[in-house]
Fold:
Amino acid sequence: MIAKKNRFTTKIFDRLFRRSKKMRVGNFLFLISEARGDARFSAVVGKKTSKLAVDRNRIRRQLYEIIREELVPAGLHKNVILLYKGAKVLENPAEFRSACKQLIPLLSCK
Structure:
């Protein structure tokens, strides 16, 4: 799990969900906006991926772990909402790890 200072509150999440810039990498849609303070991150997995909450939560936990390892230490000053748009359960999180590595240079230069 990521630190509390790097998580969204419901109020901020709803506002940024509507106003963010969208960037698609593979099966992942990143909603990105400028952060006023600490960078904040969120992962969303829809019911189209899996009807079972157990599977969606497992995917969400895997995504948060990779966010904690890859995006938080990168020192980005962005708010990032991640939507997993894959049609199947994410068995290998390496796909997301490579998507994060592609995204970090794009976020740091803007």
Q: What stands out?
A: The beta strands are 21-25, 28-34, 40-45, 78-84. The two ends are 27 Å apart (CA to CA).
